[in-house]
Write a structure and sequence with these properties.
Strand content: 5-15%
Shape: globular
Order of helices and strands: HEHEHHHHE
Largest sheet: 3 strands, parallel
Radius of gyration: 13 Å
Distance between the termini: 21 Å
Number of helices: 6
Length: 103
Amino acid sequence: MESFLLERKSNPTNHFVIGNDAGDADSIVSAISLAFIESVYEDRSITPIVSISKESFIHERPEVNLLFTYAGIQFASDMLLFVNDMTSMLREDKAKQRVNITL
């Protein structure tokens, strides 16, 4: 999972999956899981996005970071892409391409 997250962070695709705007554990895990399953088993390149900012993830969702730690994913906040990252990407390269977003 770590290698998948790092690959998507360094080389995001033009298809994003994002959970609800609350950014709670089930939303974040669901977005990552769907992107992983579709990418690995369906041979589609999908990038998971956390629906809150990195700062909110660190300060307001410590239980989610702990969940990732228990799952063996250290420093999750450094491996994930956040909603503000997606906004920046859309303004740059991806704006020239068709972008798919799965909610």
